[in-house]
Structures are given as C-alpha cells and as structure tokens.
C-alpha cells in the first residue's frame, strides 16, 4: 500500500503538471506571455559537513495582520519539509490558523529529505526494521546537522525570537520523541504526530520514563497525536503510562488520541489540533 506521503507527493506532482499545462494552453490561446511561477516563501540549499551532502531548506512566514513584516518570529522546524512532501499544506495550516487568530505568528522551516528512513531512525536490533531501507539508524547524525548547522543558519538568515519547535509525523514523529528524550534543550516545543512507537522492539516506550527521571526539571511542551490505526492505540497507551509515571517540574505534555483517524489521515487534523493547543495567542 502506498504511504500517505507517497500519495501526497504524487498528487502534488499531478497538480503542478496540470496547472502548468493549463497555464500554457491559456497563454497560447490568448497570445499572452507565459505565467510566472507562484512563490509562497523562500528556499535555499546548504552543504552539510556532518551528513556529507547538500540539503534543501524551505521557509514560510505566517504573520497575523497586526504583526510587522520585519518583526522577529518563533520558528517551527518541520521534518519531511520538501515541497513535494508536507511543506506546502503545513504552511497552509499555519496561515489559516494564524489568520483565524487561533495560533501565534510563526516561521516554518521545512527540511527536505534525501534519505528519509536513514535520517529519522535510530539504530535497531530488530532485523525486520532494517528491511525498510538500505541504510537506517542515522538519527543522531541528522540531529547534529539540525543543531550545529541548520539552526545557526536560520538564525543568521532570519529575524527570530529564539523560541523553537519541532514537528514530525510517523517515522519523523519518532524522531521528534527521540529528540525530546535525548536532547530536549534543542527545542521549546515538540509535536509528534502518530509516531512510530514499534521501532527497535518498542525501545522508546521502554526508555522514556527512565530518561525523564534522570532530569530534575524540564521546561518543555510535548504534544502527541495518535491515530486509531491497528495496534497504535495500545502503543499510545503504553507511552501515556510511561510519561504519566514521572512527575517532572516544568514539563507540559498532552496525548491526543484521534481514533477516528488512520495513519494516512491524521497528519492535517493532528497538526491543526497541536497548533491550536500549544501555540495559542496571548490572551
């Protein structure tokens, strides 16, 4: 079965092709100049020494009507952030949320994939896990890329407030949780949409409580949305029990079971609920 991301990618390509053909036909019929590309943000590439490759970064700023164009913005770093991945529709969710006054103004920084399953996964001892891609287990290096190379680049290029957040879905949701447990100092807010909790024999579920108990205080926000996909509610319950077993000063966490959604459909409603919950405008 095709993944949700594959379906969206194909749909985006079909739409772009159709729009291009329609524009060319209309221009030819009217004898007018060809239409110009429609841009909704900015894109740049950067060479990663850590990953040994070029990476493309997409940026969109969602500002409320009363926020000045040059005002600094908090930054939401987004995994699966390519134009043919989740960037465009997530930018739309941000814009409609900001315009509807249910979310603060934010900058979206989308990280386009090169080898998604390499970057989003921790090492695994389960041979079945290793069948999903030629290379897995690169999450630590990818996290270093974000911390040491991408985040300084964004700070240098844009006017930001210093507040940061991270969002990801499925394998990327697992990366969000892993980052929250292993390197919580990197971000203020963590949003995991239907994370892959079964990876490496449910290692995250086994280690979450211990990782949190090792800390005295954690002034962070964690939002987790989970679907009704077969097996996921049970795994989500185990995660909720692990998080609930630790009383940690400063930590605000929320589980949002969305049992009416599948793994294919939870992306948009899960993100929208997260934005309304953790990025509310000041009262």
Note down, in words, how this protein is organized.
- By secondary structure, the chain is α/β, with parallel strands linked by helices.
- The chain has helices at residues 4-30, 87-99, 116-119, 139-157, 171-182, 199-213, 232-244, 267-278, and strands at residues 42-48, 53-62, 73-78, 106-111, 160-169, 189-193, 221-227, 252-258.
- Strands 1-2-4-3-5-6-7-8 form an eight-stranded mixed beta sheet, sandwiched between helices.
- Helix 2 (87-99) runs parallel beside helix 8 (267-278).
- The longest helix is centred in the N-terminal third of the chain and has 27 residues, at 4-30.
- It is globular.
- The chain starts with a helix and ends in a 5-residue tail after the last helix.
- 34% of the residues are buried.
- Mean pLDDT is 91; it is low at 10-20.
List keywords for this structure.
8 helices; 41% helix; 20% strand; globular
The count of DSSP E runs of length 2 or more, i.e. the number of strands, is: 8
Order of helices and strands: HEEEHEHHEHEHEHEH
| Mean pLDDT figure | 91
Helices, by number, come to 8
Coarse structural class: alpha/beta
For the largest beta-sheet, the strand count, sense and barrel status come to: 8 strands, mixed
**Going across the major beta sheet, what is the strand order?**
1-2-4-3-5-6-7-8
- The rounded distance between the terminal residues' Cα atoms is 45 Å
- The gyration radius over C-alpha positions equals 20 Å
Provide the low-confidence segments as ranges: 10-20
């Amino acid at each position: 079965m095709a993944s949700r991301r594959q379906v969206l990618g194909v749909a985006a390509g079909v739409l772009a092709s159709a729009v291009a053909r329609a524009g060319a036909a209309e221009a030819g019929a009217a004898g007018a100049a060809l239409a110009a590309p429609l841009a909704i943000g900015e894109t740049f590439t950067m060479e990663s020494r850590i990953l040994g490759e070029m990476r493309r970064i997409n940026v969109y700023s969602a500002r409320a009507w009363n926020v000045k164009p040059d005002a600094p913005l908090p930054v939401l770093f987004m995994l699966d952030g390519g134009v043919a991945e989740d960037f465009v529709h997530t930018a739309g969710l941000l814009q409609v949320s900001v315009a509807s006054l249910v979310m603060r103004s934010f900058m979206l920084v989308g990280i386009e994939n090169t080898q998604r399953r390499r970057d989003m996964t921790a090492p695994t001892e389960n041979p079945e896990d290793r069948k999903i891609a030629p290379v897995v287990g690169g999450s630590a290096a990818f996290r270093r890329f974000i911390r040491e190379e991408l985040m300084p680049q964004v700070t240098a290029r844009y006017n930001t407030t210093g507040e940061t957040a991270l969002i990801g879905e499925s394998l990327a949701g697992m990366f969000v949780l892993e980052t929250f447990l292993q390197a919580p100092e990197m971000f203020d807010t963590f949003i995991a949409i239907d994370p892959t909790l079964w990876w490496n024999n449910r290692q995250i579920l086994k280690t979450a409580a211990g990782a949190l108990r090792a800390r005295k205080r954690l002034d962070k926000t964690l939002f987790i949305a989970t679907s009704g996909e077969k097996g996921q509610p049970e795994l989500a319950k185990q995660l909720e029990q692990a998080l609930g077993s630790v009383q940690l000063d400063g930590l605000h966490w929320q589980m949002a079971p969305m049992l009416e959604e599948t793994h294919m459909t939870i992306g948009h409603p899960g993100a929208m609920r997260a934005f309304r919950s953790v990025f509310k405008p000041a009262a």
